[in-house]
Amino acid sequence: MKQSDSANSPTLLPMPIHGVDRAVLIMMRRMGGHGLRDAHAAMLALKHFGTGFRQPLVLLRCYMAEIAQASERSIMIANCCAPKMTRDEGLLLETLAQAGQQPGGNPERAQRNLQELTGGRNAGRALTVASAFSNALHNSGIQLEG
């Protein structure tokens, strides 16, 4: 591999161990690759969030749409079956975990992640949706590890 090839290849991170984190990552991959209304993503939401699956599902769809709209660059999303996650996916997941006001949340870090993902553009709407998603999970007794 030439040095220029390694500079263009995405940074790969290990898959999340926590079941909800892994499910949210796969849902984001499905929505990114197959559309926001992907049926497999909806089934994963039902499986992991139970009967209250609609609110997290709709908020995750909105988050993905806001990120896509705000970004000035391409966001690297791996295939659903990939054994590792890209750095961009890690930033997306960490933003969801850090955006809420619950203990352990860090909204400033989430804002920095979004600025990196969007190429420096204002991603205030995406941060608001990420915060709503994080708070909805927290209210349900579910927490992302990020």
Structural overview:
By secondary structure, the chain is mostly helical. The chain contains 7 helices and 2 strands. It has helices at 3-8, 19-34, 39-49, 54-70, 87-98, 107-118, 124-139; strands at 12-14, 84-86. It has a two-stranded antiparallel sheet. Helix 5 packs antiparallel against helix 6, helix 5 crosses helix 7 and helix 6 crosses helix 7 (124-139). The longest helix has 17 residues, at 54-70. It is globular and about 35 Å long. The relative contact order is 0.18. The model is unreliable at 1-6 (pLDDT under 50).
Topology:
Elements: H1 3-8, E1 12-14, H2 19-34, H3 39-49, H4 54-70, E2 84-86, H5 87-98, H6 107-118, H7 124-139
Antiparallel strand pairs: 1-2
Characterize the main sheet: 2 strands, antiparallel
Strand order of the largest sheet: 1-2
**C-alpha geometry:** globular
* Mean pLDDT metric: 89
What is the rounded Rg?
Answer: 15 Å
- How far apart, in Å, are the first and last alpha carbons? 32 Å
pLDDT < 50 stretches: 1-6
Q: What's a concise summary of this model?
A:
With 146 residues, the protein is mainly alpha-helical. 62% of the residues lie in helices and 4% in strands.
Core attributes:
mainly alpha, two-stranded antiparallel sheet, 7 helices, 146 residues
